[in-house]
Amino acid sequence: MSLPDDETFMRHALGQARSVWGATHPNPMVGAVIVEDGKIVAEGATAPDGGPHAERLALLARGKTPRPGASLYVTLEPCSTEGRTGACTDAIIASGIKRVVVGATDPNPAHAGRGFAVLRAAGVEVVTGVLEDECTDLNLIFNHWITRERPLIAAKAAVTLDGKIASRTGESRWITNEQSRADVHRWRRLFPGIAVGAMTVLRDNPRLTARRGSEEWCPWRFVFDGLLRTVVDQNLPRVYTDEFHERTIVVTTPHGGLGYVRKLQDLGVKVWVFNSPTQRVAFADFRQRCAEERISGVYFEGGAQLLSELLRAKQLDYLFIYRAPVLLADDKARSIFSGLRPERLDQAVRLADVRHEAFGDDELMRGRVTFPEKMPVDETVFGSR
User: Fold this and answer.
1) pLDDT of residue 382
2) Which of 6, 230, 268, 309 has minimal Cβ neighbours within 10 Å of its Cβ?
3) CA dist list (Å): 283 to 147, 224, 313
C-alpha cells in the first residue's frame, strides 16, 4: 500500500486508541485495525489494566484467520514479552499476517525495537514511523512513566493575552470559552489524579471531576493543605462529602493537627501526611508516594501559588496554557506564575515538543517543561498555601 493509505488506516487505529482515553493506566492506550483488500475488517483497543492488548482484540474480532495479504495497523510497537496476556508478536505471527504497520516505537529502553526484530525474523514485513508524532503524543503519561519510573506532573492554566488568570478583584470566570473548558475536562479524564491547593478549594469549592456530556468520572483528587485549613469550618468542601469523597486525598504535614486528620479519615477521606519542617510538602516526596501507589500522572489546576512552587522546585514536567483573546493590561491583575528572577533569556523556563490547538478564538499551547541550568529564584515571594 502507499503511504497515504497507510496514514489513513493508522488514523483509524488512533481513533480506536482514543476510544479508551484514560481507561488503561498504567498501560498505554493502543489501537489496532486489520485491513484486507483495502478495507477494515476488524479493530481493537487496549483493555483496562490486566486485559488483552489491542492487537489480540483485533485478531479476536476478526473471528477467523486473516486472508493472505492482510495488514495489521497498530499505534504502538507490539509487545514481545509474555507479561500477563502473552506476547502480541506471538499472536501476530500465529495469525499468518505478513505485513504490520506501526506508529510509535515502544519507549521502554529494555523493549524498544525488540518487537520489530521478532516479527522480521519470522518473515513479517514491518513498516515503522507512520504518524509517529501523533502516536507518541497519545501516550504522554505512559511514556514518562515507563522511561523515568515516576509520574508525569502537569499543570494547567487559563490566561489572558498578558498572562493573567484573574482581574485585580479576583474575577476569573470565565477567561476562556466553553470549548476550551470542555477540552480541560478531556484532559482531566486522561490523568489518574487532579491536584489543587487549599485556597482553590476554599474559594471555588470545585468538584474536580471530568464531565463530558452525561458522563462524570472522578480521578484521585489531591488537595494540598499543609495546615488543614479546609477542615476547620463545619461546612466542609464538597470533595470531602460528595459521592466521590473516597477518591479524595489530602496532602498535608504534621503542622495541620492530628485531630483534623482523624476528622477527614472518619469521613472516608484519605490523608497523606509528609514530614516537613514547614507547612509545605516537598513535591519530590509527593511524587515518590504517587509512584508507590502506581498513580502515573497528576494534573495540577491551581492555584497560582501551588503552580509557582512546582515550577520553582523544578518538579513540573508538562504545561497546558489556554490563552484567550482578552487583555487586562493591569499590573495588579493576578499572574499565573511568580517566584523566579531571570535576568537573561537563557535563564528562562521554556517548553519543548510544543503543540498548538485552537478552540474557537482561544488557543492551547502545551509542551514539555525544560529548565535552564541556572534558574534564579526569589526567596521572598511565597506565603502559606
Assistant:
1) 53
2) 268
3) 19, 10, 8
CB 254 within 8 Å of CB 359: no
Does 384 score more than 60 pLDDT? Answer: no
- The strand pairing partners of 33, in sequence order, are 43, 73
Listing from the earlier edge strand, what are the strands of the sheet with 318-323?
270-273, 248-252, 220-224, 193-197, 297-302, 152-159, 318-323, 362-370, 350-359
Gap between the Cα atoms of 260 and 273, Å rounded: 12
- Say which of 7, 36, 43, 55 is annotated catalytic: 55
- Reply yes or no on whether 55 is catalytic: yes
Per-residue DSSP letters for 25-50?
TTSPP-EEEEEETTEEEEEEEPPSTT
Residue 265 has a pLDDT of 95
Q: Which residue has the cell 489524579?
A: 193
Measured CA to CA in angstroms, residue 363 lies from 26, 178, 183, 333 at distances of 30, 12, 11, 21
Does the structure show a pLDDT above 90 at 342?
Answer: no
* Rounded Cα distance, 301 and 172, in Å: 14
User: What dihedral angle (degrees, nearest 10) is formed by the CA atoms of 243, 384, 200, 327?
Assistant: -170
Q: Is the pTM of this model over 0.85?
A: yes
